[in-house]
Structure formats: C-alpha cells, structure tokens
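Render this sequence as a predicted structure.
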Amino acid sequence: MLAVTTLAVPLLGAAAPVTSTGWASSGSVDVTIDNEHVVTGELAKCTVDGPYKGWTQGGATGDIAVFGAGDTGCGRSGEVSVAQAGGRRFRATVLQRYGGPVLTVRTYSAKCATTATGSAGEVAIGAVEGVTVPEEIPPNHRIVIPGGAAGTALATVVLNETVTPQPPDGSLVTHALHIKLFPQGGPASGDIYLGTAFCDPFGKK
C-alpha cells in the first residue's frame, strides 16, 4: 500500500455547526468521446441520511473503463459525519485508442469526517500501473500523460485529490484518483473518479 498524506480543512470563526452532511461513492465516469456522452452516475453511493451502505459488483463501461467490486459506508456519530468508499481492480482502457497507456489500480479508498469547524480527508491507494507513482503521495499529486496533438496531454491523473471551495466553507471532496481526459482539448473530454468522499460540517449537500 502506498503512503499518502492526509489533509484537514478548518474554517475559523464559523458559527455553531448545524446538522452535518456527507456522502461517498466508489467511482464514476462522465466522459464524451466521438460525440457520445457516457455517464455511470455515482457507483454504490451512500449518504449519512441513508442509504448508509452501498455496494457494486463492478463491470465494464464500454472500452472506457472496468471497475471491480466496490463498497461505501456513511453515518453520523453525534454531530460528526463520516463517509468512506473503496474499490479494487480498476482498469482504464480509454487512452489506448489514442496510443496511451492502460491505467490500473489494484485497490483504493477515500474517507472524510467532519469536525466542529471543518472537515478532514484521507485516501489510500494500492499498486498503480501505467504511470509512475511516488512512494509517498502528497495531496493533489498530478501526473501528465503526454501524447496529444501539438504537444498537449492525453490526460492528467491526480492522486490523493482534495477539492475545497473558494472561499473555504469547511467542506471538502476527496478523490483517491481522478483522470481528466484531454485537459487542453481534443477528441475526448470528461472525468473518471475512483473513491470519492464528501463532507460538510454545516449541512450543505
């Protein structure tokens, strides 16, 4: 298992917390290729308001990606919301048609929890093939896959991704892995996510 760095997002000077919220998904695909839009929705989604658990046996999304089994769990303990997701044996084949690599991830997970004034997230990623991954994965570690026209990228891969709004409001979304197709433009566009967890201490969805 590769090591990752956890990230906490506090919000200073916030009002007293209301009912916190959270949800998690084992993965999703939302891409457009050759004018065809392919969307899976959030796989095995759970929320802290129910359903509290999700499970998917996985399967292929055309020649774009193959998901193995995945599961999620969400719940509250007092004012604290916790959301977590995991999966295994993922394979992205979409870049092959453009001369790019097949990306595989043996196991992955993402988790977040609310605090009194913010949220904290963490991910874990097993063996990754198709790109070079450091032993210690810092937050928002970005890898560019070259090979697009005129020196552009076929895709970017972000591991241990954390997304927070600006200005910060205490919420965060963490993804174990995020593949963005042709970020500078090209024959395909869209995003593939593995292991997503969202938390907000102040009750937004």
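Summary. The mean pLDDT is 92. Residues 21-32+42-200 form one domain.
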